[in-house]
Amino acid sequence: MEFDLTAHLKFSNDLPLEADSELQKAVDDANDALFIKGVPRDSIKEAARIIEWHAHANELCVRIVSGRYTRAHDALLRFKKAVGTTMGTKYRIGVRGYEIDEFTIKIEVETPVRIELPFVKQASYEDKLLTLQLSVGEQEIEKKIPDRIVNLIEEKIEHQLYGTKVENWDLIWESPQKESHFRRDPTQELQERQWIKHGVSRGQWIFGPQVTKVFNTFEEIIEKEILARLGYSEMIFPKMVPWEVWKRSGHARGIYPEIYYVSPPKTRDPEYWEDVIDYYKVTNEIPLELIRQKIDDPIGGMCYAQCPSFWPFMQGETISLESLPIKVFDRSGTSHRYESGGIHGIERVDEFHRIEIVWIGSPEQVNKEAHKLEKRYARIFNDILDLEWRMARVTPWFMAQEGLIEAAGDRSAGTIDYEAYLPYRGERTDSQWLEFQNVSVNGDKYPRGFNVKTQKGDLWSGCSGIGLERWAAAFFAQKGLDIELWPQKFAKRIKKLPEGIKFL
Ligand code: ATP
Ligand code: ZN
Ligand code: MG
After folding, report:
1. Residue of the nearest CA to atom 6 in ligand 1?
2. Best mutation site among 398, 415, 435, 468 for ligand 1 pocket (most ligand atoms within 8 Å of CB)
């Protein structure tokens, strides 16, 4: 990687001719010491160097080249400060600002990546070298735009190499195999029995009384075996999520293809909407074009992951040590995702129901709590639901993207996915299992994003999303729909399924 920038620093007054010797000294000091500060010994070659300079009237023009670090634009900031001090002391002349005349970044890339980025005025690819010409000023340098551009390109390269959003998958535990008498796709069976019907919207189901009873029983089990036992308090998290929250939670970095966007009306003045109303009354058609003109840009979207909406409750606060660990959960509403084509069953839907558990504390507390949850979950899946399931450690895209794993400096940050075997999909070894929930230790991602601190020490958090549709899909796929054949402990909790609705 190579950075090559030419900038001119502007001074409050003309630089006197005799200042040349001081300027030369400032340049030498920068090259020999200032730019090398903090650079690991084996990377000194990478450090920035001023390779050309000249002064003229009130401007000092410098060309700085570097490798990975100290990067040329960081070097420029260091140099600006240093030379400002020198000229200030000796001649009472200060640096007023600077302009970047040229800024080129070269990155080695095996295969071409698509580059269409703000502040990149030109990009070319030749001989496995990507060359970017940046168009940036002081503001963009201060805001670290060049580094973001480099990070993004590295992310794109990595994405090309590793593809999908899961970076790795390590099995940590698996249950014994369970005999299953049922091998059908449960969604088909549920539809045939008319326990569920398609909702009118995409990827949406209307759950009849029998399935609702099963969902509620899952919730009761979770409440009794986990939430009450481990001391979690229920809260109500908002379900319409503004951009501000997703910017802080990190979701703004990637979820656009899956968002259900929310746009408010431009005004609630009935007169403003009268033509829409009249049009509908006359034609019985919704005048979409007209409506489009009368609504604002999206202010955000429908709940995607539950916990981000909780964090503004903590935002800017310092938590008393007494309150730690904090343990809360939410089950107050649906989550919505625009899923890809394969939305046929209840396991991948656009509207789903989930209990989200959130805990906050010191890194030790957060890890300890995650292990407690894992134990309680294992009990439910083994003793009550009698499932065939497994746990795997994965790196979800957001953690990879945010460099969280390294940032946390601890391998205990990460996600555990819970997966269930679905007999109808084929053999255990070559069929895809269903992720039905997860337990994540998120390191300091949320406290950092929402600026939350504690009296003393680091603050971490964790969350666990329990998808009711996914639990149901896993359970029905392995145990079928006949309560007489269900594991006794679960059937006992259900007692009796409601009759349901009969159609002629
Ligand atoms: P997948 O890879 O299956 O799409 P995901 O990685 O997107 O899952 P997460 O973002 O980790 O899932 O969401 C947490 C939990 O929310 C999942 O374990 C699952 O229980 C539930 N969930 C996510 N997406 C859906 C969906 N489309 N339908 C039903 N439940 C879902
Ligand atoms: Zn969460
Ligand atoms: Mg998904």
Report:
1. 396
2. 435
